[in-house]
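hey so i finally got around to running the thing on that chain from the lab meeting. sorry it took forever, my laptop kept dying and i had to restart like 3 times. anyway pasting the input first so we r on the same page abt which one it is
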Amino acid sequence: MDSVKHGTSRLLLIALTLGLLIGLHHTRLIAQEYPTKPVRVVVPNAAGSLNDTLARLVFSKVSEALGQQFIVDNRPGAGGSIGAEVVAKSPPDGYTLLVTAGSIMVVNPFLYSKLGYDPLRDFEPISMLAKVSEVLLVNPSLGVKTVDDFVRLAKTRPGQITYASGGNGHPTHLMMELFQRKAGIQLVHVPYKGTSPAMQAIVSGEVGAYNIGIGLARPHILSGKVLALAKTGLPSKDALPGVPALTTFFADAEYVPWQAAFAPKGTPKDIVAKLNTAIAKALASDVKMRMAAVDLTAIGGSPSDLDQTVRSDLAVNRELVKGIGLKLD
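ok and heres what got predicted. didnt touch it at all, straight out
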């Protein structure tokens, strides 16, 4: 009887092993052939946004490399949560991807009480795409010329100097909150419905300060309507020459927005690897220069690099958002 049981166990083990090997072979075969049809790239922002522009630049090259269309599908709304949820609930077959700003992954979980996705549970990291170069601006009416001047003035007028943001919980909001903490100052937050209205607010003198992408700020800096105090991120050498890095003044005050590509959790590793390789080639092409023209620095990296960034930024934002006491429905 024992010999029969032993024989049955061996047969079962062999069958399971063969099944596993066949499954692995099938998965690898699918990955080798991938993609065999158009791929949907969900962008949780409106057409024409920075994230949309980046997705179209990068995935036009990925399309050339992999021989299939990668079609951008704009799904804005709820701070990007709508588009992210669409991808989280899509089949993990490599035919629905997400290109998103980092805030949708590492800030929204702490802002929204009812979120239809989890950044760690529902997504496979593919690749970091870019980091945004930004600049800390002040209206000339404040009478300051440097970061040190601004901090000294803010310390003499606590709770009086205003700063603009693109909205509650927007990276432009969190950047200034972090800066206040590190500088030991107290400013007044004035949220606007988007970065462009906020830009107009500082140009008109409606607010005193603002931190925003260099590209949006550059024409107003050149016209003298706003003053650039410090740069953040990884700007090119030619971006605002003579303007110092914020880390020169406060080593840990830099809050750098980023964009990255993700797939639904469970997407085969070989497909993720194939996409990662195609993205790396795209970022090393002329796309890199075209991104620099809109003040984006091409980053790339492995899926594990992106995973580590998400986990690290979740820890930072958990503390930051909790400290602000901010919650959105």
